[in-house]
Amino acid sequence: MRLLVINPNISDDVTALIRAEAQRSASPGTELTVLTAPFGVAYIETRMEAIVGAYATLQLAAEHAEGHDAVVVAAFGDAGADGIRELLPIPVVGMTQAALASAHLLGRRFSIVAISRRIAAWYRETVHAYGFTDRMASLRFLDRPLSGPGSVQQEHRDRLLELCDACVREDGAEVIVLAGAPLAGLARSVAGQIAVPVVDGVSSAIRHAESLVALQPGAATAGSYAMPPAKPHRGLPPALARRLDAPR
Amino acid sequence: MRLLVINPNISDDVTALIRAEAQRSASPGTELTVLTAPFGVAYIETRMEAIVGAYATLQLAAEHAEGHDAVVVAAFGDAGADGIRELLPIPVVGMTQAALASAHLLGRRFSIVAISRRIAAWYRETVHAYGFTDRMASLRFLDRPLSGPGSVQQEHRDRLLELCDACVREDGAEVIVLAGAPLAGLARSVAGQIAVPVVDGVSSAIRHAESLVALQPGAATAGSYAMPPAKPHRGLPPALARRLDAPR
Amino acid sequence: MRLLVINPNISDDVTALIRAEAQRSASPGTELTVLTAPFGVAYIETRMEAIVGAYATLQLAAEHAEGHDAVVVAAFGDAGADGIRELLPIPVVGMTQAALASAHLLGRRFSIVAISRRIAAWYRETVHAYGFTDRMASLRFLDRPLSGPGSVQQEHRDRLLELCDACVREDGAEVIVLAGAPLAGLARSVAGQIAVPVVDGVSSAIRHAESLVALQPGAATAGSYAMPPAKPHRGLPPALARRLDAPR
Amino acid sequence: MRLLVINPNISDDVTALIRAEAQRSASPGTELTVLTAPFGVAYIETRMEAIVGAYATLQLAAEHAEGHDAVVVAAFGDAGADGIRELLPIPVVGMTQAALASAHLLGRRFSIVAISRRIAAWYRETVHAYGFTDRMASLRFLDRPLSGPGSVQQEHRDRLLELCDACVREDGAEVIVLAGAPLAGLARSVAGQIAVPVVDGVSSAIRHAESLVALQPGAATAGSYAMPPAKPHRGLPPALARRLDAPR
Amino acid sequence: MRLLVINPNISDDVTALIRAEAQRSASPGTELTVLTAPFGVAYIETRMEAIVGAYATLQLAAEHAEGHDAVVVAAFGDAGADGIRELLPIPVVGMTQAALASAHLLGRRFSIVAISRRIAAWYRETVHAYGFTDRMASLRFLDRPLSGPGSVQQEHRDRLLELCDACVREDGAEVIVLAGAPLAGLARSVAGQIAVPVVDGVSSAIRHAESLVALQPGAATAGSYAMPPAKPHRGLPPALARRLDAPR
Amino acid sequence: MRLLVINPNISDDVTALIRAEAQRSASPGTELTVLTAPFGVAYIETRMEAIVGAYATLQLAAEHAEGHDAVVVAAFGDAGADGIRELLPIPVVGMTQAALASAHLLGRRFSIVAISRRIAAWYRETVHAYGFTDRMASLRFLDRPLSGPGSVQQEHRDRLLELCDACVREDGAEVIVLAGAPLAGLARSVAGQIAVPVVDGVSSAIRHAESLVALQPGAATAGSYAMPPAKPHRGLPPALARRLDAPR
């Protein structure tokens, strides 16, 4: 099985975190292609940045999906995932979507722990879009300057654990979601230090993508996830244009 | 990996359907123990029947969980699953819960196709309990006398396909959930005949249980899924009593 | 009028509290049969315990309903109530259900005051199942070790009043629900000490059960509260089996 | 016990229907004062008409509440009920509020059957205000010219039964609410002809008002149902002015 | 363009605030008629007071609408607005409704800052009626004795700014709504001192009323905002009676 | 006042419709700059197409906003609007957002009439994102092949009117939203032929943008609509990069 894993951001150190956790999580026999966005920002925290990340991810997916069995969008917020799902006949899994699926399988009410104050609104809206707001016990976040996305989990590990603990004790969280690719792998390393199950988005996305491939649910040929209708277009990247022009 | 799969009903022919689909879905190396409820009804369609099924399933889980890595409750409605999750330190996955996770990963709005009019309320309430009501496009059901749960999918295959089709065309379903253990395996056999992805509860539950085992999210030692507090009890089956009396 | 009142737990002292409050609340001419679960736990705080309590309550109802005009399930969380409603052609009222009805009649937003941290999730899910989440201003709870359910209201009376007060002042509660059979009768004894109306689950259930009997709304012969369809069963308690086999 | 029952409309024939059903429903020993609005319209179907009815009802309540134990607002839509609850230290029950309480006690999903197309929006908004929208399976209505509110149930009885039947069969209603004072008493006369329990607003309101009096939940001295704060006013009817000026 | 602006309260000093802010906000060429309720209370804080204000506003609208292009109800809570909309073929805009429209256009989550504790429930219910509860980040309020509605913004300006600040920093508000006619104009005077956009209800209502007049969406001749059906009435103010008797 | 109006699609004929309706709607003194996306598709119907449109719109806004007082995103679905709002210190109004504001000001429940089956999911999700789902009575759509977006309203005018009529009669719509830039101006031309108010997205957006400019609510300097935090980026269009690098 081959999975295409896309970091919608330009940060190579975050891509490294994603790759490492993806490799630790993948089943034997799963091969991973891990890509970094060629343009965009270091780390998506806002709606504006998500627009850029979505377009970059869409292009990478159009260009590189060939030969893969599923696509993973490895940024919380799932920039572009829902659109790519229309474009490709294979499963597409976003990191928030995957984390929500895991949290749903582990308990009723989850809390999200995130790396910055600014990112909270974007996460909240993503959770709302998936209809999971009523299951979110709380959203807590680091409120400190970050030296960079790639080193958050080392530098702020203790504060992150405190936030997790507060979610359990004060907010009634039954599951914790450590949100954002910069925290990829942290759940694994804090095993046993948090009193409820902890969800990692990257490993969840890898595993759920594998499951969808195995379950063979079929591709959409009608409805809102079928290939978009043929229509005039202009100025699109060649790989995207080719897909839109393909016979259907 | 060893999974304990429990049919909360007394119907051996449905257990056979469950076992067959579970085996087809499981990863290499996964071993399955498949049990049938020793008491109860042929097929849970109502809240009253679910009370019986939940208690039977709880007992089986308490008695047989030892040596397994996860439990699958193989009836739509997830009779007992949420309670068993408190009792055991391993993942517990219900069939509705699993099907909803798959549907969530495949699209925004799903429809459920069920085998009887009577079962609709019970399913609707289960979906509500998980907070997925707003993502349900519709719930359609067979409205014909059934000769037995084990033969529904053969006898009513054409009508079931018509219902699926109506969900897509009239209700805007982006994913179809074929609901209930009696339909286990049907999704696989109608592949390519339905215009959107189709979800099977049994195979989803097997795969998602495997994923939770692999992801190692940790067990709850606090919050509402930790082991229930020690307290007086009376008249409980020995296996259940033993677990409640275990030191914690 | 004869009411069958079932304590889904094994605690005789709580049964005594229930009986006392039920007798104080009942209209002249109402006769009460008050039963204690023959098996189960001392006090339901979790989903797992509720599974046991539901099955015990279902059995008692099947066995003893004859000759009664309505059934009251006297535990917050309403273990088994919804299933018993399918089984019997008479009104069935749960304690949460009744308390919510009273709260709804007295104001828009209510708070629940409960006796333990662990019980909060189970109550929250019960309120959600009835669709009353948006009317709940808050849920506060004692967070202290209890010597036993039968003595909570004496031992923790002051703290309980403080919690009620906080619900009014800080959470905007317009009504307080004192939740759980161990608090039966407390509302009556704190009359005048809380600044908003206070609801007791047991007395509410008795009164509302009487009302349903008087209103004669008719029994369900179709829909999801009609008698479950005839089907094979095995190993059920005789009284339950007889009802399932009755002609309909 | 003495109940003040107010018809917020000017229609004496509807008052007669209300009085007759109220007397049939009341417990022995309950005395009823039944009043008709001195100004307003024949039958509230719209928000504008409800404004008039609310003010008329508020005046009657202020003037006549003395010596009564509870107030019943006998029009679906509960014109003025929530405001009167602030003004008086006794329970106040609206007809929709009471019908919803009964429906909640009898099942999960109810349908409303109403007497005109125009009235649907007003009922829908009232149900929304109480937070019961998610429990409403459907709202169906007569769509024919009415000769007058007092004769609707005789003239359109067969069509009303057809609507009830459609709610059960097509919409999944578990309870039917026959809505509006012009249908007062109809539930009683169609007993046994509808396959699920049927709720009458007037008898529900009488019984629930009696229950609240018996339960003695206490009056609000704080929060949003306490007496409104003292402040300048002008031009109010004397009985209302007197209450606002009373020391508190 | 001529706008009829109605203060549903008897307070002339609040009317002066409304008039001043309305004049500052209106487009060139817009003429304003500003009226004060002839009966009622100084300032609506409760549901009971809103019933009085609604009836007074309805009468003023019926009497004075002639020759105007739209009506503005200048009290938060929109007393009577929805009913007047049925009565008149011109746009009717309430102050809450307008503030919510502005907040919706400026961001996702807004907070309301109000002038008293008591008013919170009434505002909360108004927001719920419009379906905006999920977009409300918080509702904060002054909790101090007021010398009068006309001087709140001068006397409590600093505390109001602190509340706004807390909404942004602690509650995640993206927009602040300064609620209530007594705060009319405050938004303008604190420009630049609050870190997110600030909405004023009066100026929003004036502008949105002008927009609706300009957009010419047409009047309702069917549905729930069409003129109420002709029917008997009694004791209504002449202007209201005339409108109800007008041919349609 | 100068408004920047962006068509997120490449279709010049739709831009012409937008410009014409925008000019008819704008107040005297308002100047319009109307731009067409330099790349993208002819008409956004899907999430994938919206990703492309959002990025194109973001670029145009970054490049051309200078000297304008507000931005209008002239495609239903509001591709990019929420992100642009973060980037610019001036009001940004999307066409769906504006139409929802108008509908909210005109009544409680609206229906959307759209030009294709495929577009329904995208619109539904946009309405959900704004939290307006509960106020949507229905969404109906043309289900016929279109020769092109620029001629829909001429070719299918009768069918569109039939859909509007069905929304009013069958779905209880109190307001109709004619959705999509290809229908720009239709509301105006069918004035008087539909029984409830009709909302046009383009004219609503123009008017509401003007209002926000006039109301001067202030720009966000904190919270989720403040300028995104400074961080590394790569490969962005120069105008966008310049804004991200600007001192703040």
From TrEMBL, chains A, B, C, D, E, F:
<dbReference type="InterPro" id="IPR053714">
    <property type="entry name" value="Iso_Racemase_Enz_sf"/>
</dbReference>
<dbReference type="InterPro" id="IPR052186">
    <property type="entry name" value="Hydantoin_racemase-like"/>
</dbReference>
<protein>
    <submittedName>
        <fullName>Asp/Glu/hydantoin racemase</fullName>
    </submittedName>
</protein>
<comment type="similarity">
    <text>Belongs to the HyuE racemase family.</text>
</comment>
<dbReference type="GO" id="GO:0047661">
    <property type="term" value="F:amino-acid racemase activity"/>
</dbReference>
<dbReference type="Pfam" id="PF01177">
    <property type="entry name" value="Asp_Glu_race"/>
</dbReference>
<feature type="region of interest" description="Disordered">
    <location>
        <begin position="224"/>
        <end position="248"/>
    </location>
</feature>
<dbReference type="InterPro" id="IPR015942">
    <property type="entry name" value="Asp/Glu/hydantoin_racemase"/>
</dbReference>
